[in-house]
Input
Amino acid sequence: MTTDRIKEAVRAYYAQIAQERTSCCTSSCGCAAGYAEEVLASVPVEAQMGLGCGNPFALGALPRGATVLDLGSGAGMDCLIAAQHVGPEGRVIGVDLTPEMVALAQENARKVGLHNVTFVQGDIEALPLPECSVDVVLSNCVINLVPDKARAFAEAFRVLRPGGWLLVADLVRQGALPAYWEDDPEAYARCLAGTIPEADYLAAIEMAGLVIEAVTRAAVEGPIVSLQVRARRPL
Ligand SMILES: C[S@@+](CC[C@H](N)C(=O)[O-])C[C@H]1O[C@@H](n2cnc3c(N)ncnc32)[C@H](O)[C@@H]1O
Output
């Protein structure tokens, strides 16, 4: 399948979820797995769509006053949580490919009266941000959807300030995937067919110049594994 076809399928799939306000909550999603009840209670239910596959905040506390970028911000849940970590003197930017998701995230931020959270439509393979402009890059269940993962990690490296963190939760695979997924656009959009082996995923992070500091994993289903990685751009 061409990269354009994959991106179009991904955009259409998440546009429908945003418009219908449906949660994906399939076997491939974590349905807000790993978040404390009080954290979930602090964000609007409309932002909790069960689209993540882990909890990137479990990898490290975000510093107050930090500028945070969320790659593939969806309905905005992790951005709204990040805003609580960084406080009013910090700033949070969510980038998402799907305009309908960006609109939903903006609506969710308005509901909680946050003015230091911005959502922009964009492709994480070509981030609309200057180099060395953010302290922390977050991402939750997104890079598996991106055809050129090396480019996405290179972009994360580019926008991070030296010493800044990448905190990522994502799905990878251990072993082979069913062959019929390869031609199934929905299998890509559902965070399945675009998964790559864990070793290749970690190598792509390192190839971008980031230094891996911590890795945790949990089985999801069959060959699909939920991975959480903390990596740092060296000083
Ligand atoms: C599984 S959802 C995860 C959303 C959010 N991170 C969360 O945890 O709730 C994947 C999101 O990534 C976005 N996405 C997919 N490919 C992208 C790309 N190349 N650039 C930016 N966003 C992308 C989709 O539009 C969708 O909102």
Summary: The chain is about 30% helix and 25% strand. The radius of gyration is 16 Å.
